[in-house]
């Protein structure tokens, strides 16, 4: 296992459990205790965790795993969701993409679509996610518009009032939201209020709104609301979404695509 993969696995275990002992982590990852100690020390230097005697705990009371350390949890589901979302976008449209692991997969699915290999432009992508802009900027057939703002390290998203200057001057065909939670009553939500504010503005500039979320995020609520459920036209999720959950979204007037 590479160091990068090891670090991702360690941080995810830490988020799940709140505390990890060296021997416990070594057994889980099937590496030596000395390797885990070295990993813990190096991650502590980056302020990704707090070292304790014999182990580590999460850094701070509220902990959000940075995007660069998130492993491909539900990877197959996210890739299926991403392809289904990409299929909802027509050539020549302007599409807004928020940050997150699922929307990053949507960007990749758009990049390999055979009918988007040429055009003037084939697609206009508006995003506040630096990693998405970086991946798509090498596609000359795509017009990439990046909002202003201050970079948020956890999600690579640009946040703050500087984004208003760009988003206030444009309109887009479809906004694709990556969310922490989506519920009929509480709407689509993020964990950070500044991130939610930029995503909300992106929705307001869109003709239609698509939420891309795996089933683990449905029926949940999070701290900062992006938009109400009534503002969402389509939910694309995985086939593990329960029939009762799907029914509630459909009764709210949302088209549900389960893949």
Offer a concise description of the structure.
It contains nine helices and 15 strands. It has helices spanning 3-17, 22-29, 33-45, 75-86, 101-111, 130-136, 164-167, 193-204, 243-251, and strands at residues 19-21, 49-52, 55-58, 94-97, 123-127, 142-146, 150-152, 157-159, 172-178, 181-183, 187-190, 206-212, 224-227, 234-237, 255-258.
Structural write-up:
The protein is of the alpha/beta class and 259 residues long. It is 35% helix and 25% strand. The strands form 4 sheets. The chain has a 7-stranded parallel sheet with strand order 6-5-4-9-12-14-15, sandwiched between helices. The chain is globular and about 55 Å long. The two termini are 31 Å apart.
What attributes characterize this protein structure?
alpha/beta; globular; 35% helix; three-stranded antiparallel sheet; 9 helices; 259 residues; seven-stranded parallel sheet
Query: Using DSSP, what is the number of strands?
Result: 15
Tell me the structural class: alpha/beta
Order of helices and strands: HEHHEEHEHEHEEEHEEEHEEEHE
Radius of gyration computed on alpha carbons:
19 Å
Span of the ends, CA to CA: 31 Å
Could you report the average pLDDT, rounded to the nearest whole number? Answer: 91
Number of helices: 9
**Strand ordering within the main sheet:** 6-5-4-9-12-14-15
What are the low-pLDDT stretches, counting only 5+ consecutive residues below 50?
none
């Amino acid at each position: 296992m590479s160091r990068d993969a090891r670090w991702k696995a360690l941080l995810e275990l830490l988020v799940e459990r709140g505390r990890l002992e060296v021997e416990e982590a070594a057994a889980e990852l099937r590496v030596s205790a000395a390797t885990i100690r070295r990993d813990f020390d190096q991650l502590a230097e980056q302020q990704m965790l707090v070292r304790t005697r014999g182990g580590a705990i999460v850094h701070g009371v509220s902990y959000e795993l940075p995007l660069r350390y998130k492993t491909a949890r539900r990877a197959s589901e996210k890739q299926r969701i991403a392809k289904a979302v990409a299929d909802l976008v027509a050539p020549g449209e302007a599409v807004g993409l928020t940050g997150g692991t699922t929307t990053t997969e949507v960007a990749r699915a758009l990049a390999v679509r055979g009918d988007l290999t040429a055009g003037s432009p084939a697609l206009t992508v508006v995003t506040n996610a630096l990693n998405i802009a970086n991946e798509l900027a090498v596609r000359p057939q795509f017009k990439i518009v990046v909002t202003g703002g201050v970079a948020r390290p956890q999600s690579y998203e640009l946040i703050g009032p500087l984004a208003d200057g760009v988003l206030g001057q444009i309109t887009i065909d479809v906004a694709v939201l990556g969310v922490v939670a989506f519920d009929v009553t509480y709407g689509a939500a993020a964990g950070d209020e500044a991130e939610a504010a930029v995503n909300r503005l992106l929705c307001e500039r869109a003709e239609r709104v698509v939420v891309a979320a795996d089933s683990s995020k449905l029926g949940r609520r999070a701290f900062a609301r992006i938009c109400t459920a009534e503002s969402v036209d389509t939910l694309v999720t995985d086939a593990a979404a329960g029939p009762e959950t799907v029914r509630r979204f459909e009764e709210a007037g949302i088209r549900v695509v389960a893949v």
